[in-house]
Specification:
The protein is an all-beta fold and 485 residues long. Among the domains are: 102 residues, Lipocalin, CATH 2.40.128; 108 residues, Beta Barrel (Lipocalin), CATH 2.40.128; 116 residues, Lipocalin (Beta Barrel). The chain has one helix and 34 strands. An eight-stranded antiparallel beta barrel has the order 8-10-11-12-13-14-15-16. It starts with 13 loop residues before the first helix and ends in a 24-residue tail after the last strand.
């Protein structure tokens, strides 16, 4: 990156092949397609399209906005296969005859001075060093310059490149920027007051997170003054999650997913994510209009990048991350609430609950094969049908066996002898815990006809869900004893 500019039109035969974005299929707010010759999974919400990942040797962050039915303006920042850092402002259209229109962008060239600079980590908030930022060159929406940053307690000057987007946030212009160390930054620019806010999320080598905010002014720019929603001490429970599982394939997820915000300093937040029983750090920042951008790292899901907004008591979050069992990067949309919604009474259980996933263990520590309904239709043998209720009690069938059970405050229980169509099983003790109003996680103890036992952990839903779930596994593999009184 040296601050040079280039421009190309689609008459160049190389451009359409390499930079075309093909959207094959979309459901709700997520899509699958291809970009730079690679499969892509992304989100579309409020006319904003976003995805990130490694495509054909290029590490890319892609943000676009649809102007009408056949026009999209895209802001792309990337490290290419040669290690160069680039910014692209790309005009897309489904109509090859469409005339390109580039809007007017504020001139942000010049020197900027930091007025407020903080970062938040797992240890709390602290001031950070480094004061100056200079935009050396700008051509329309694309700009180049340098900024001072603190690394290991010392100040260094590093290169930056970025571009305006067509997005706005509460009347502020939004831009994206990448520095020469690979950190992505989001800018909220208030050109009327000669100020801008700069945010970034960074994962450290030990997988802890850091979130930075730097507020800049130039000339007679005003001090920072904005109202930020208070999220400290709040916990958000997943109500609904929908993701891509392959090109043209979509499904709901069974994630036990919670976000706990433990600390907040101004616009910066820090906390924990509980994802399938794995707790990992999350840091993020709140922009104007209660837009939120959290990031974290999971040992099983890799880097998690989220963006969304909060409206009343609901958080809407779009994410991209890596899922090993899905074979690569995926995209999802999630809805969270501060109050987990579970069935209020046994009456809400009436209907058919299908086992979508199961994994088990025998007494000899032999792990039984995990399976999902998509691959193993034998799971249908263990469907639960609730036919009627009386107060906290219910009756129905477990497969072909009649049962009676109880439901109290999200907990479902029953026990019964089994008929002959349950392989070698003669008895089951069933315990279910509702995650939300359409999914519960169960623990089932089966007695076999030879007197041995096996335990199964399953996911049930009253919807037609087939994806592998994220199931809690806390790792209890050690000796346990009752403490002395």
């Amino acid at each position: 990156m040296d601050g040079t500019y280039d421009s190309s039109l689609a008459e160049d035969p190389y451009i359409p092949f390499f930079y075309d974005l093909c959207i094959y299929e979309q459901q709700e707010s997520i899509f699958t397609g291809s970009y730079c010759g690679s499969a892509v999974h992304g989100t579309i919400t409020n006319s904003i399209i976003a995805f990130s990942g490694n495509y054909n040797g290029n590490e890319i962050w892609f943000y676009g906005e649809f102007d009408d039915d056949d026009v999209m303006y895209a802001s792309v920042i990337n490290f290419d296969s040669k290690g160069r850092m680039n910014s692209y402002y790309t005009y897309y259209s489904t109509d090859p005859e469409k005339e390109m229109v580039i809007g007017d962008y504020e001139d942000i060239r010049g020197d900027w001075s930091v007025q407020y600079s903080k970062r938040i980590t797992s240890e709390g908030a602290e001031d950070i060093l480094g004061t100056d930022l200079t935009i050396l060159r700008q051509r329309g929406p694309v700009f180049y310059g340098n900024m001072e940053m603190m690394f290991d307690g010392a100040i260094e000057t590093i290169d930056i490149t970025g571009m305006f987007t067509t997005m706005s946030d509460n009347g502020l212009d939004v831009a994206f920027m990448l520095d020469s160390r690979g950190t992505e930054w989001t800018m909220e620019i208030d050109t009327a007051n000669d100020t801008f806010d700069l945010f970034s999320n960074v994962r450290l080598s030990d997988n802890n997170m850091i979130c930075n905010e730097r507020f800049y002014t130039r000339g007679d720019g005003s001090d920072i003054d904005k109202e930020i929603i208070d999220l400290k001490g709040t916990t958000w429970y997943e109500k609904y999650s929908f993701c891509t599982i392959g090109i043209g394939q979509f499904t709901e997820l069974f994630e036990r997913y919670e976000i706990n915000i433990t600390e907040q300093v101004g616009s910066l937040i820090y906390g924990k994510i509980n994802l399938k029983g794995e707790y990992c750090d999350v840091s993020g920042y709140i922009m104007s209009c209660d837009h939120i951008r959290p990031s974290g790292y999971s040992e099983t899901s890799g880097n998690l990048y989220g963006y969304g907004y909060i409206e009343d008591d609901t958080m809407y979050l779009c994410e991209s991350y890596y899922l090993e069992y899905l074979g690569g990067t995926t995209a999802s949309v999630c809805t969270f609430s501060q109050d987990p919604e579970i069935p209020e009474s046994a009456d809400d259980l009436i209907g058919v609950w299908m086992p979508a996933y199961a994994t088990g263990m025998k007494e000899d520590n032999n792990i039984l094969t995990s399976s999902n309904l998509q691959d193993d239709m034998d799971l249908l043998t263990y469907r639960l049908t609730v036919i009627g209720t009386n107060g906290n009690m219910f009756w129905g069938t477990f497969g072909g066996t009649e049962i009676t059970g109880t439901y109290i405050n999200g907990t479902l229980t029953f026990a019964t002898d089994l008929e002959d169509n349950y392989y070698n099983y003669s008895h089951v003790s069933f315990f279910g815990l509702y995650v939300n109003d359409h999914v519960f996680q169960s623990c089932e103890l089966f007695t076999e006809k030879d007197g041995s036992h096996s335990t199964w952990q399953c996911i049930y839903s009253n919807r037609s869900l087939v994806a592998n779930p994220n199931i809690s596994s806390y790792g209890f593999e050690e000796d346990w004893s009752v403490p002395d009184e």
